[in-house]
Amino acid sequence: MELSSQRPRRSVLFVPASNEKALTKADKLSCDAVIFDLEDAVAPQAKQASRERLSACFALMGEMSLERVIRINSLSSEWGRDDLAVACACRPDAILLPKVETPGDLLQARDALDQAEADSSMALWAMIETPRGVINVGPIGELGKDRAARLSCLVAGTNDLVKETGVRVDFDRRFIHPWLMQIVLGARAGGIDVLDGVSNDFRDLDAFARECAEGAAMGFDGKTLIHPAQIGPANRAFSPAPAAIAAARAIIAAFAQPENAGKGVISLNGRMVEQLHLEQAQRLLARSRPAQEDTSR
Ligand code: COA
Ligand code: MG
Description:
Elements: E1 11-16, H1 20-25, E2 33-37, H2 47-60, E3 67-71, H3 80-90, E4 94-97, H4 103-115, E5 123-128, H5 131-135, H6 137-142, E6 151-156, H7 158-165, H8 177-189, E7 193-196, H9 205-217, E8 222-225, H10 231-238, H11 242-256, E9 265-268, E10 271-274, H12 275-293
Parallel strand pairs: 1-2, 1-8, 2-3, 3-4, 4-5, 5-6, 6-7, 7-8
Antiparallel strand pairs: 9-10
Helix pairs in contact: 2-3, 9-10, 11-12
């Protein structure tokens, strides 16, 4: 598997572009990334004012250590093209496309970014949140291998999946687990990151911590959030545990021993350890380093 972004994406907070107070405070948050939202969180009559507010906010923002993403409306909607023009001018790290259903949807947005002469570092993130999106998530995720496609992250849109399918999630998420796992597989097929969907019940932080632990166990790199109170639990759940870091260091040290030079498989504390475990250990350490350094934020 290719290395995904070295940047941690444990906690990714949606901030409605209609909420001026929240926008101005976004750079003080301790999340790894912010998604400034022009889509679902903004009412139709507030779209234009929100675009203007977002532009003003980006103009005032200095260098930020957190990743900045703008979610636009779908390019097939009446707001999509204007959103894209404003988003490009803001020069965020990425633009998040909602309701991506085919590789063509992504390539259309890529072409629009190229035409707008957006910097090649400006990435695309894709929400997978419709039945067609889940069905096509393999070919969509595989675009991650093609640098020119700009795709760097998939985001599970659980609220829309519930709405579109009628599945019930009122007692737990068991019925959407297969779709979530498909989204993880699609992202990994392209060597890119993948984020779990939001938890609407932002006051119940115990239930939220359990859902984060579940998402981490399912292979997600992080979780999308709707409220600042969710940042701490998400950062904790998606950071590698100290025991996992120690185990990774032990594997790297073992393979570095002269007697193990060139070996494909070794024995370590009674367990078989292969080159693939070495790669896994290196990946874990690479991703834990920035997460550990930024705890002061
Ligand atoms: N980003 C930044 N700040 C936020 C925030 C967010 N997503 N959600 C809440 N806050 C701020 C509030 O502005 C408030 O700040 P203040 O103390 O300076 O006034 C503080 O956190 C406490 O907010 P609280 O009163 O607990 O919540 P609320 O009732 O104001 O807002 C929501 C609740 C759900 C409406 C709000 O959290 C929200 O809009 N979330 C994002 C929704 C979204 O983007 N949805 C689309 C993607 S699923
Ligand atoms: Mg949605």
